[in-house]
Design goal:
This protein has about 200 residues and is mainly beta. The protein has one domain. Helices cover about 10% and strands about 30% of the residues. It has 1 helix and 9 strands; from the N terminus they run H-E-E-E-E-E-E-E-E-E. The strands form 2 sheets. The chain has a 5-stranded antiparallel sheet, with no helix packed on it. Strands 3, 6, 7 and 9 form a 4-stranded antiparallel sheet that branches. It is elongated, with a radius of gyration of 37 Å. About 20% of the residues are buried.
Length: about 200
């Protein structure tokens, strides 16, 4: 077989290309690399507590015209939050005392916000203790629907506030409510305020 000059030239060019490619692959290069570690993430929490934790307002043998007032301290043990309060009550004797009793909720006294003796705080709610037709409960402070709602209370982290709970039996209460009883539960629902 006879090889032409053109074929020899093409073969030479191909050999040079292969040698060049091999040489580039074996070249030594200076390199460097750095790692950035310790990228730690943690989550905060929404943590609400109340004091007392039960029986904030109780009164045995109430008569029309009687009332009771007591403070409850709401404390934020976590990140900035907002909270709402609702009320439910029992009606085991079917006399519906829960819808006769009047609940008034105020902030602590103006000038002395950790006390409830002066009754000078800002009124947040005044109405029935709980209604038989409300489900899951009577909204008494704010609204536990997610997001900012009218009346919601906000607390910064490590902050607390005093709310004054007053329950009264109206003077006009009829004898149909005699020997009646009800037990109320106040539910405090909290949620984060950040990004919400």
């Amino acid at each position: 077989m006879r090889v032409t000059k053109t074929q020899l030239a093409l073969a030479g060019i191909g050999l040079v290309a292969v040698v060049a490619a091999t040489s580039v692959g074996t070249m030594a290069l200076f390199t460097d690399s750095k790692s950035v570690g310790a990228n730690t993430f943690s989550t905060g929490s929404v943590s609400l507590s109340t004091s007392p934790t039960s029986a904030v307002v109780t009164f045995a043998n109430m008569m029309p015209g009687d009332s009771v007032t007591n403070p409850i301290v709401v404390t934020n043990n976590g990140q900035s939050m907002r909270y709402a309060v609702s009320s439910t009550a029992t009606n085991a004797d079917t006399k519906n005392l829960m819808s006769q009793l009047v609940l008034t909720v105020k902030t602590g006294d103006s000038g002395s916000p950790t006390t409830c003796t002066g009754g000078t705080g800002t009124q947040l709610y005044s109405g029935v203790l709980s209604s038989a037709t409300s489900a899951p409960g009577t909204k008494i402070v704010g609204d536990n629907t997610t997001g900012s709602q009218a009346g919601d209370r906000t607390l910064a982290g490590a902050a607390s506030e005093t709310l004054c709970f007053n329950v009264s039996l109206p003077l006009a209460t009829t004898s149909g409510y005699a020997s009646a009883s009800t037990t109320a539960t106040f539910t405090f629902d909290a949620e984060q305020t950040a990004n919400n």
